[in-house]
Amino acid sequence: LQFTDDDPEHAEDIPKYAEDGWPQVEAFQARHDDLLIATYPKSGTTWLSEILDMIYHDGDVEKCRRDAIFNRVPFLEMNSRGHIPLSSPPAGIELLEKTPSPRLVKTHLPVQLLPASFQEKGCKVIYMARNAKDVVISYYYFYQMAKIHPDPGTLAEFLEAFMNGKVAYGSWYEHVRGWWEKRQEKQLLYLFYEDMKKDPQREVQKILQFLGKEVSEETVARILHHTSFQEMKKNPAANYETMPSSLMDHSLSPFMRKGISGDWKNHFTVAQNERFDRHYQQHMAGSDLCFQMEV
Ligand code: A3P
Q1: Quick one: how far is CA 141 from the chain centroid?
Q2: Ligand 1 center–CA 44 separation, angstroms
Q3: Ligand 1: does its nearest atom lie under 6 Å from the Cβ of 45?
Q4: Cα 191 to ligand 1 centroid, rounded to whole Å
């Protein structure tokens, strides 16, 4: 999932893994009632996916436990012919074609690479962002356990790669800003991991309002319980334990690792933090997009 920089037009934009699968992703035919879940990696994608799947199943826990999250919410740009071996998990598009409407679709693509049909069909999008410092720490552990990635090296090396956008899906700064700037144009709800941590009930209500759905208080309570970190951590249908260990090695780091805000404080040195802050200010200058660094 590395980004290539040998394409003069789209330097650092085109995902390398998609070399043979990209035309199919680009030509993907969204349906008008698709709901797109868009995130930069490690920003709470799986959490949001589980919440939405629960909403779509009216809080029926059993239905949501029946299958793994990567089958229930297919990953648009997951390519069976690239780095991912055929059959596990299935390629996103093949899965999506078989999925009955209304579908939930997951993507990590930056907004400028989103297949045009999502906009043409007027699909709703929920974007979730998480503060950069927690993302980079979560990503560092994920690089170690998810075998599609190369060895991340030391944390110091990985921080440099992250700041320079030389990680899978490229620059976090461009990703969060790109989607933020589009939120007026599209049917887009922009959420924050930190808000979801602080008040999940309020955020779930926001989602329900955005979707125009009404559910009982009891159902909301069931959704909140089922999607709490503790419940998701022990739920194999949500925590990627059913993924082959050749793809994700949970003994190196569990997918459901800590699920908190502010864990970066346990990892950054003072010097790393100062350097990161300077770089951050330069790259977020002029944007009204603000993050909480801990809750
Ligand atoms: P940490 O590594 O900081 O623990 P993604 O699904 O986008 O890959 O994001 C994974 C991150 O979201 C991990 O962060 C994971 O623990 C966290 N996460 C997953 N489910 C969560 C939940 N229910 N509550 C809080 N955090 C959750």
Answers
A1: 15
A2: 5
A3: yes
A4: 15
Residue nearest atom 2 of ligand 1, based on CA coordinates: 138
Substitution site in 42, 140, 172 for ligand 1 pocket (most atoms within 8 Å of beta carbon): 42
Catalytic residue check, 108: yes
* CA atoms of 254 and 145, how far apart (whole Å): 8
SS (H, E, C) the chain: CCECCCCCCCCCCCEHHHCCCHHHHHCCCCCCCCEEEEECCCCCHHHHHHHHHHHHCCCCHHHHHCCCHHHHCCECCCCCCCCCCCCCCCCHHHHHHHCCCCCEEEECCCHHHCCCHHHHCCCEEEEEECCHHHHHHHHHHHHHHECCCCCCCCHHHHHHHHHCCCCCCCCHHHHHHHHHHCCCCCCEEEEEHHHHHHCHHHHHHHHHHHHCCCCCHHHHHHHHHHCCHHHHHCCCCCCCCCCCCCCECCCCCCCCCCCCCCHHHHCCCHHHHHHHHHHHHHHHCCCCCCCCCCC
Which atom, in ligand 1's list, is nearest to the CA of 47? 20
pTM over 0.90: yes
Active-site choice (108, 226, 267, 283): 108
Q: How many CB atoms lie within 10 A of CB 251?
A: 7
Give 208-250 pLDDT, tens digit per residue.
999 999 999 999 999 999 999 999 999 999 999 998 888 899 9
Give the mean pLDDT of the chain: 90
